[in-house]
Specification:
Blueprint (H helix, E strand, L loop, with lengths): L8 E3 L5 H9 L7 E9 L3 H8 L9 H15 L5 E4 L2 E5 L2 E8 L8 E8 L5 H16 L5 H9 L4 H16 L5 H4 L8 E5 L20 E5 L3 E6 L5 E14 L5 H16 L2 H4 L11 H5 L2
Parallel strand pairs: 5-7, 7-8
Antiparallel strand pairs: 1-4, 2-10, 3-4, 5-6, 8-10, 9-10
Helix pairs in contact: 3-8
Length: 293
């Protein structure tokens, strides 16, 4: 069966033979996972966020900036916005990022997952407002489409549910996935991004999900102060945050991905160069004021 257009993508063109054979050799995402870690210097970022927040109707956080920067990099490095399905490589339609939202900051509060389409040309302030609306909806008591779908599936007897999941995976393999079932699924996304710093944790390497088509997992850690060796061989204490990446190497090689990560970190360290200059005269913010989503 030849590759056909799916609801979430189209067959990738011009893929070399060695990359087309990789999904037959490396059959799962976690078997194909590559791990990266990067530290980001926030000495210019935190004052910029503090100044921007003086002009916004809602509060922008470092997580907002990370999501906007990821969308920009995926637009500039489009071979990262691909996925493997049915042993074939596809270009994804649009830039879709998923992330989890805690309904309340308590141990027993449930999680809700947001899947959001990003426009890399959208002004940062507009993106923050639109994303805040999506987060508030996720934190409300209204069940999301995914919640309703999962609740319906869980009514089935276990053998029937097991067979239903197997059938859905088979449909995915043969490129006939029904849009109605998977359009809201957060695992059918360009990347899943987790803000572990918002709960006081450092970044962690996360597994990929065999379900769905998401080839990239990014975790953002807590902001901390750490010694940095400057270009003049001096040691300075600066605000630092760690990013950790888990990437499905069947999509693209490690060098292409590493250069994308380098570009991402550059965007986070110098947001004024691409997200707009902030008003002058900002005072230095605390880590907590820009960390929590």
């Amino acid at each position: 069966m030849s590759a056909i257009r799916r609801f979430d993508g189209r067959p990738a063109r011009g893929v070399p033979a060695y990359r087309r054979i990789v999904p037959f050799v490396l059959r799962g995402r976690n078997e194909s996972a590559v791990y990266f870690e990067q530290s980001v210097d926030l000495r210019a970022t935190l004052p910029w966020l503090d100044a921007v927040n003086r002009t916004l109707p809602v509060r922008a956080t470092l997580f907002h900036l990370l999501l906007a920067a990821i969308a920009r990099v995926l637009d500039e490095r489009p071979r990262l916005n691909r996925f493997v399905a049915g042993r074939r490589l596809y270009d994804r339609d649009g830039i879709w990022l998923s992330f989890a939202v805690k309904k309340r900051m308590s141990d027993d509060a449930p999680l809700s997952v947001v899947k959001h389409r990003f426009d890399p040309t959208e002004p940062f302030a507009d993106m923050v407002v639109r994303l805040t609306d999506a987060i508030e909806r996720a934190r409300s008591n209204r069940p999301s489409p995914v919640d309703r779908e999962v609740a319906w599936l869980l009514r089935l007897p276990r053998p029937v549910l097991d067979a239903a999941v197997w059938t859905l995976r088979a449909l995915d393999y043969f490129d006939v996935v029904p849009r109605a079932l998977f359009a809201h699924d957060p695992m059918y996304a360009s990347a899943f991004v987790a803000n572990l710093g918002s709960i006081g944790l450092d970044a962690a390497y996360h597994h990929l999900f065999e379900h769905g088509t998401c080839p990239l997992f990014v975790t953002l850690g807590r902001i901390r102060r750490a010694p940095v060796v400057t270009d003049g061989d001096r040691i300075e204490v600066r605000p630092i945050v760690s990013l950790k990446f888990t990437f499905d190497e069947r999509v693209e090689d490690g060098l292409y991905c590493a250069r994308a990560i380098e570009r991402l970190c550059g965007y986070l360290e110098a947001p004024a160069e691409w997200a707009g200059r902030a008003p002058a005269g900002a005072s230095g913010p605390t880590a907590a004021s820009v960390q929590r989503t």
